[in-house]
Amino acid sequence: MSVVLGPLLQVTIIVVDLYMWVIIIGIILHWLIAFNVINTQNKFVYIVGDFIYRATEPLYSRIRKFLPNLGGLDLAPMLLILGLIFLKGVLQNIYFQVG
Questions:
Q1: Domain of 7, in residue numbers
Q2: pLDDT, tens digit, for every residue of 60-73?
Q3: N or C: which end of the chain has fewer CB within 10 A?
Q4: Would the pTM count as exceeding 0.85?
């Protein structure tokens, strides 16, 4: 059982790490676009921004349902990162108990 579960947990932890990086890159990209440092007319910037939007918005929208409207301040990315850190800790504890 642990022969399959160990590597599966490792891959899941890596996916959680990668998703956290996607969120962080999305935050930075949003700031750069908001301050006109980069232009969304650039094809590469548009493709990256669209990918990040499609990867993060389904979870952001679910989190935003429970958050109060704070105007221009969006706490959904921070709460999602905190949730992913918690999930990663749980997965690591399971991994160390199995392996």
A1: 2-98
A2: 999 999 998 888 88
A3: N
A4: yes
